[in-house]
Amino acid sequence: TLSGRRAIVTGSTSGIGHGVAVALAAAGADVVLNSFTDTEDDHKQAADLAAQYGVSVTYIKADMSKPEECRALIEKAGGCDILVNNAGIQHVAKIEDFPVEKWNAIIAINMSSAFHTTAAALPGMYDKGWGRIINIASAHGLRASPYKGAYVAAKHGVVGFTKVTALEAAGKGVTANAICPGYVLTPLVEAQIPDQMKTHDMDRETVIREVMLDRQPSKEFATTEEIGGTALFLCTDAAKQITGTTISVDGGWTAM
Ligand code: NAD
User: Fold this and answer.
1) Residue located nearest, by CA, to atom 6 of ligand 1
2) Could you cite one Gene Ontology molecular function of this protein (predicted)?
């Protein structure tokens, strides 16, 4: 059980971040939800999660593209025992055409935010002699695809930074690992299915198998619950010596 532990999950109002937040709350952790908005719904999500699992859940707004807001998130939360760096965005374009502001935003949100939150969270973890840092990287932290220059660079960067974090934290009760999902059925991905069906004139099953999961040998999406379960495992005692590594949840993609 994670009772008495506080987890901060960045970008946790939807998709994988939400799945991880639910898994940690269900295991008894107090949770801090985060995104860059500050809506009624954001706070309602926190209240609902708290009521469902009988843990403390708060929502703290912080824009992960801004270094000082990354660090302020950790401070406002009062530090954390479990830090999940999950916030991320995507943009697809040829290198020659890749908009500079998109490049900068992806590097900031998908990579540099993990540096800032980790820097702010580590001293408190060292004081307690316990901590778990879980970076949500991607199969694109280990493999490349054309037109995803910024995303692939940022995710490879996160995998490298995870290893450095693990080395510096070794022997202090603090582990750092990266989860590398293949395609996960998040609302974002679900929303692309109807368009792809039209474009390719295929039914739902065929477009998923042949277009979307072209590189995922299992021909099945991973789920946000499965990523949550993987993150939860990294918080258990069984995972104490797992540090500085990547865990692929990709249906075999990176075995190829
Ligand atoms: P999503 O769009 O459903 O969720 C992204 C979350 O990040 C949202 O809560 C959003 O509000 C938040 N966010 C975006 N910009 C932010 C900012 N500037 N500051 C704070 N929060 C911000 O996407 P997802 O599919 O759940 O992706 C989550 C993470 O998992 C990302 O890092 C993504 O790269 C990674 N990932 C996703 C897949 C996939 O197939 N869905 C695969 C591999 C890795």
Assistant:
1) 11
2) 3-hydroxybutyrate dehydrogenase activity
Provide CB contacts within 8 A for 57, sequence distance 6+.
21, 25, 30, 31, 32, 33, 46, 47, 49, 50
State the Cα–Cα distance between residues 113 and 63, nearest whole angstrom. 9
Identify the H or E element spanning 61.
strand 57-61
| Nearest atom, ligand 1, residue 90 CA | 34
Whole-number Cα distances in Å, 191 to 102, 112, 195, 198, 216: 22, 28, 8, 13, 19
**ipTM of this predicted complex?**
0.99
pLDDT per position as a tens digit, 1-29:
999 999 999 999 999 999 999 999 999 99
Q: Does domain 6-184+222-249 have CATH number 1.10.10.10?
A: no
Rounded to the nearest angstrom, the distance between the alpha carbon of 13 and the centre of ligand 1 is 9
Give the Å distance between the CA of 64 and the centre of ligand 1: 11
